[in-house]
From TrEMBL:
The keyword Transcription does not apply. PROSITE patterns: ABC_TRANSPORTER_1 (PS00211), ABC_TRANSPORTER_2 (PS50893). This is Oligopeptide/dipeptide ABC transporter, ATPase subunit. Belongs to the ABC transporter superfamily. InterPro entries: AAA+_ATPase (IPR003593), ABC_transp_ATP-bind (IPR050319), ABC_transporter-like_ATP-bd (IPR003439), ABC_transporter-like_CS (IPR017871), Oligopep_ABC_C (IPR013563), P-loop_NTPase (IPR027417). It comes from Streptomyces violaceusniger (strain Tu 4113). Keywords: ATP-binding, Nucleotide-binding, Transport. It holds the Pfam family ABC_tran. The keyword Transport applies. GO terms for molecular function: ATP binding; ATP hydrolysis activity.
Length: 341
């Protein structure tokens, strides 16, 4: 984890990833699903930004749009100062070595017909970065770097454990030294016993290589451990952004407060004394999101203004890049306690 925490302004000269006004809608027989609606986010070089929220909030869609596996409906995605939103597949091809994605399920993201060595070598061959003995040496070095024995290069994915397969995915993603890595819930498909080792591996590699990382997860303990800064999503929109330590110490948005109250703490006495915020109802459908603040249907503090006027994501006084989207949070950062409405 990096020591410095960068600003969260929408556009920065040092940003390896700059997302501005990102919109991704999917139209089908039932209507238009507003999966992502106006997300702005930036990641500095060497920075890890955690993107959290419950299932269906649009986190993975943001990640897929960031690496252009999905074309945004509107908005822009800039990587290393190059706007890539509307580039053709041919124009994108030479740029893809600068950004990679680690998928949630390594079983489905690794070609079962290829050996581990061939999988890790594929990006190097496609970008013509190595061949022959140099390619074999590079693959062996990458496997060693992610903690895999060199003889595993001759095996196929089904012969490996889940943790080993995810290490292969990480080795493949980092083989071309990308400046941006999007990790889409990289530990959620793994046994609890190996999740910590994969997180430690990501932290060590990021510290060594200094790539920017968008870490998508619903595991609050993992994001607290790994991220420099955290962005919280709800129903396709960002509701709060803050340095990780500040967000966990003093969440401002009622949804963030509820999210953190659901995460257990390792101190039994502290856990018993905590006030759990239980939200009523289910996450509304992105086919028909509520008017006004999208959280008002479940918010214990909602007032009439919340039901009609969408709140803007705005910065708070005091610097540090803290932003929140809530009518009830004052500009000086004073926020109501959602556990005591």
């Amino acid at each position: 984890m990096t020591a410095a925490v960068a600003s969260v302004e929408a556009s920065r000269d040092d940003a390896v990833l700059d997302i501005s006004g990102l919109v991704r809608h999917f139209t089908g027989p039932a209507g238009t699903v507003k999966a992502v609606d106006g997300v702005s986010l930036s990641i500095g070089r060497g920075e890890i930004v955690g993107l959290v929220g419950e299932s269906g909030s649009g986190k993975s869609t943001v990640g897929r749009c960031a690496v252009r596996l999905d074309r945004p409906t509107a908005g822009s995605v800039t990587i290393n100062g190059r706007e890539v939103t509307r580039l053709s597949r041919r124009a994108l091809r030479p740029l893809r070595k600068d950004f990679h994605l680690v998928f949630q399920d390594p079983s489905s993201s690794l070609d079962p017909r290829m050996t581990v060595g061939a999988i890790v070598a594929q990006p190097l061959r496609l970008h013509r970065l190595a061949s022959g003995d140099a390619l074999r040496d590079r693959v062996a070095a990458l496997l060693a770097q992610v903690g895999l024995r060199p003889e595993l290069a001759r095996r196929r994915p089904h012969e490996l454990s889940g943790g080993q397969r995810q290490r292969v995915s990480i080795a493949r993603a980092l083989s071309v030294d990308p400046q941006l890595l999007v990790a889409d819930e990289p530990t959620s498909a793994l046994d609890v016993s190996v999740q910590a080792s994969v997180l430690n591996l990501l932290a060590d590699l990021q510290r060594e290589r200094r790539f920017g990382c968008l870490f998508i997860t619903h595991d609050l303990a993992a994001v607290e451990y790994l991220a420099d800064r955290i962005a919280v999503m709800y129903l396709g929109q960002l509701v709060e952004q803050a340095p990780a330590a500040e967000l966990f110490a003093d969440p401002k948005h009622p949804y963030t407060q509820a999210l953190l109250s659901a995460a257990p703490v390792p101190d039994p006495a502290a856990q018993r004394s905590r006030a759990r915020i239980v939200l009523s109802g289910e996450l509304p459908s992105p086919l028909d999101p509520p008017p006004g603040c999208r959280f008002h249907t479940r918010c214990p503090l909602a007032v009439d203004r919340c039901r009609t006027e969408p709140p803007a994501l705005r910065g708070l006084a005091g610097g540090g890049g803290r932003q929140v989207s809530c009518h009830l949070v004052a500009d000086d950062g004073t926020a109501p306690d959602a556990s005591a409405p």
